[in-house]
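User: Show me a protein chain along with its predicted structure.
Assistant: Here is one chain, sequence first, then structure tokens.
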Amino acid sequence: MPRIRRGGFESHEAAKIFEDEYIANHRARYEQNADKRTLKELIEIWHSYHGINLADGRSRRRALMQMADELKNPVASQLGPEQFIAYRYRKTHGTKAIDYKTFNNLHDHLSSVFDRLKKLNVIDYTSPICDVDFLKAQ
């Protein structure tokens, strides 16, 4: 939302009323423009634009789709670091635990989906998992 500097309001109540109305108006506009596509939809777009040209594009798409299923196919723009870290814990410490290196590969593949789509102007936000560090593999 755009920033509004403190102005000449006659009272605290008047400022509060202005703030509430302003937030309500901008929230509606922001929510209209929010990207509602799911993770699977973005993976399909990535595959048709870029993944199809990779030597391992089919296997990478399959692994990404499985990851989306295991994450319960969230709205991609709302995938948060907490949700991804919980998923990482389940994958690396569950009954069918995978190696840290293997998970880092999956993490890299998902990050590259967001990076490539942003570069192609398909999405206008950065990767929701860009701040999640990779696991230290021995």
